[in-house]
Amino acid sequence: MSGTPFRCQIRLGLSDLDRNVYVQRPIAMAQAPEEPDEHILLRFLAWVLFYDEHLHDGQGFVDLHQPDLDAHDLTGTLTLWIECGMPPLKRVQKALGRSKSARFIGMFAHRTEAESFRKELLGSNARQRSQIEILLIPEEFMGWLEEHGSRNMEWTATISEGTLYLDVDGTSGQCQPERMTLD
User: Fold this and answer.
1) Interatomic CA distance for residues 158 and 180, integer angstroms
2) How many Å apart are CA 9 and CA 24, to the nearest integer?
3) Element (H, E) at 42
4) Which tens digits make up the pLDDT trace of 57-95?
5) Domains detected in the chain
6) Which residues in 27-48 are b (16+ Cβ under 10 Å) and which e?
7) pTM as predicted
């Protein structure tokens, strides 16, 4: 990869009523020059939907051995591995092999990618399938987010009963991410 990454930042105000998580903090990530805007926006959405004080940017787009985001507990044990878009199956299997209890999240903006990932997993010998969650963000919402996104944004997010209400720099949108099953 070549070129200088772009610094992208959101100032996040999050009220996740479903999980009792309330936080206000800036979240900055580097966007590789070859990384599509859709991918970085999925990474920011992952921060919102799975916020954890131990969550951090894993640089998965740049480093094929790392997740897009991950979290470890205070002992260093992997607790959460998040992939945005279509990850290589080998990386998924490696993540599952690292921990018998960590959650693995695959986030997608396109149904065809999510279904392809699901089929690939079902056809593989991946262990611990019960740890895997597939989350589909509605394409209309992603289109809205790309239209209103920029490199420096203010996000106010509320999650209630599975619905994400998001204000991006004064413009509001909402979606209900779809959880796909592996059976």
Assistant:
1) 22
2) 13
3) helix 37-49
4) 877 666 666 889 999 999 998 899 999 988 877 777 777
5) 6-180 (3.10.640.10)
6) bebebbeebeebbbbbbbbbbb
7) 0.90
